[in-house]
Specification:
Length: about 575
């Protein structure tokens, strides 16, 4: 990625694999079109004629007509410079941004150096406006591209083993961990790339955030890997592209508001389009596992080539009927059993939800969905039914199998729930589980913290939800994830959100451990302490263990759920 000084060229980003714009390596060029938007019509008309838009109507400066002309003209300019330098039939896509003076332009590349020169040369033509020699600037740009060295080719990998790619706003880590566990249960050598690092056969081999293209490559580089499971995040797709040419099975868990306002993604619909890239590169003879309860995810079946396999908590969902009619498959819940649907046959009951520890005795709606997604993906890979069932039964919601995701502990008669819960949907899921293990008359105490790169309204909304649905809320900051904000700024936003639901005087603590300790000290027997944990997961586990806490096993959890429901 290259940033530039003021001028038409804002950024050049080279995407090494499938991306939001193309199913192969592409250059993403961000342009400031202020000069084109403000130039007198005569100069713009000269440019239009030079690039083959002789009959164009550019509109007056700084009008909506000029803005739309600019998008058309920039696409034609890229093609004209490429054609005159010897590259014909170049695909170009142009997208507007929230800034009317900025456009994103993308085109595929086969030779990196020449593709980057094309990007800079196009920007130089725009910089020539409104000079009278803008026509000559196009010729100079083409000459510069023709004279440039070709440069290296894309490094996109073609997998040598089956690949399951998992994406979504919530649940992708848990789902990918479950799939990897089922693969290992089948005796396969499994490599898993994620936000936590690279794991091979359950062992961490490289720590760090590997949810981007480098993660997939590092997993496939290990000779012991017979099945690759890749957690694919929004950032990696946008900033680098996907590192693989294809996958065999894709999973899209859901799409909700998260990381909006970053990298040109400002709406949930745009975010869904980014996530759909993972499904779009699934092999035609593979399976795309889609959440039928999320309309944006379900809509992806119209843009994928792979066969659809939907999952839904509702066995009577119209999406299931439609998918089966089209020859696809589905997974749902019937009479408390995970069941698989295939066309022309009765549903096949796999396993009872209460026997799947990750569902927290059926309490966690999100983990029920993750279970349905993981079972679908594993079966789509061809893993035998009985192995899938065994994998679901033996994957536990603890710090060993699923660290940082709905981990439950007992501290005497106080329950502690630890979860990432980094957005609205995640927080609501955490509160749902915490409420589900709270005895009648007991309280729910919440330690809430946020990552600094969220939008102001989202930060306030998280505090509003937390204050509304808990009996006591404190702020527990994530010092490593302030991302340009101050603690004081975050305190103000969070307290503003809490005050909307009548909660004032919210106490703030500098760390997650400090927030947890404060709430445990104030908890009474039967109370539940919920912690949004991101930055200090290991330290939180150590603190709980040092104070006599123990992880809840499936039996303990079932007992808590029954007690919370008033069932003896």
């Amino acid at each position: 990625m290259t940033q530039h000084s003021p001028g038409a060229l804002v950024e050049v980003r080279v995407l090494e694999g499938p991306n939001l714009y193309f199913p192969r390596a592409a250059v993403k060029l961000t342009l400031d079109i202020t000069g084109l938007a403000a130039a007198e019509t005569e100069g713009v008309a000269r440019l239009a004629r030079r690039i083959g838009l002789a009959s164009a109507r550019p509109g007056d400066p700084e009008t909506g007509f000029r803005q739309r002309f600019a998008a058309r003209a920039v696409a034609r300019l890229v093609r004209a410079v490429a054609a005159e330098s010897g590259t014909t039939r170049l695909a170009v896509r142009v997208r507007p941004t929230v800034d009317p003076h900025r456009l994103v332009v993308a085109y595929p590349w086969r030779h990196r150096t020449r593709a980057e020169v094309l990007a800079r040369s196009v920007a130089e033509v725009l910089d020539a406006l409104p000079a009278s020699d803008v026509e000559a600037a196009v010729g100079r740009a083409a000459a510069a591209v023709a004279a440039a060295e070709a440069g290296p080719a894309p490094q996109t990998l073609t997998p040598r083993v089956p690949v399951v790619a998992v994406t979504g706003t919530n649940g992708k880590t848990t789902t990918s961990r479950m799939i990897a566990h089922i693969g290992r249960t089948h005796g396969l050598g499994v490599g898993w790339s994620s936000t936590d690092g690279i794991y091979v056969n359950g062992e961490l081999v490289e720590a760090g955030d590997y949810s981007g293209p480098s993660g997939a490559g590092r997993v496939l580089a290990h000779e012991a890997v017979e099945l690759a499971v890749t957690e694919t995040a929004r950032g990696g797709i946008l900033l680098k592209g996907i590192g693989l040419t294809r996958n065999d099975v894709s999973v899209v868990t859901n799409v909700s508001a998260d990381h909006l306002g970053l990298h040109g993604i400002d709406t949930v619909d745009q975010l869904a389009e980014v996530k759909s890239v993972v499904a779009q590169i699934t092999r035609k003879d593979g399976w795309s596992v889609l959440n039928a309860d999320d309309p944006r995810v379900l809509a992806m079946r119209h843009v994928v080539k792979a066969r659809p396999w939907v999952f839904s908590r509702d066995p009577d969902s119209p999406a299931i009927r439609e998918t089966l009619t089209g020859g696809g498959r589905a997974t749902s819940v019937i009479d408390g059993q995970v069941a698989v649907f295939v066309p022309g046959a009765d549903p096949d009951p796999l396993v009872a939800l209460v026997d799947v520890p990750m569902t927290l005795a059926g309490l966690s709606r999100f983990n029920v969905e993750n279970t349905l997604a993981a079972a679908s993906a594993a079966l789509a890979l061809g893993i035998p039914r009985e192995v899938v069932v065994e994998g679901l039964r033996t994957f536990l919601p603890d710090s060993e199998h699923n660290p940082g995701r709905m981990n439950l502990f007992s501290l005497g008669e106080v329950s502690v729930v630890v979860d990432l819960a980094h957005n609205e949907a995640g927080l609501e899921a955490l509160l749902e589980v915490a409420s589900g293990v709270r005895r009648p008359g007991a309280r729910l105490l919440l330690a809430l913290g946020v990552v600094g790169d969220r939008q102001d309204d989202l930060i306030e909304k998280l505090a509003e939800i937390g204050a509304r649905d808990s009996d006591l809320m404190v702020i527990a900051h994530k010092a490593h994830y302030l991302r340009g904000r101050s603690v004081e700024e975050l305190d103000e936003l969070l307290r503003t959100g809490a005050e909307r639901v009548g909660v004032s005087g919210v106490t703030s603590y500098p760390t997650e451990v400090a927030g947890l300790a404060a709430l445990v000290e104030r908890a009474q027997p039967g109370d539940v302490v919920a912690l949004m944990c991101h930055a200090e997961r290991a330290a939180v586990y150590d603190w709980i263990a040092a104070h006599g806490g123990t992880p809840d096993g499936p039996e303990t959890l079932r007992d808590k759920v029954r007690a919370a429901a008033g069932v003896s």
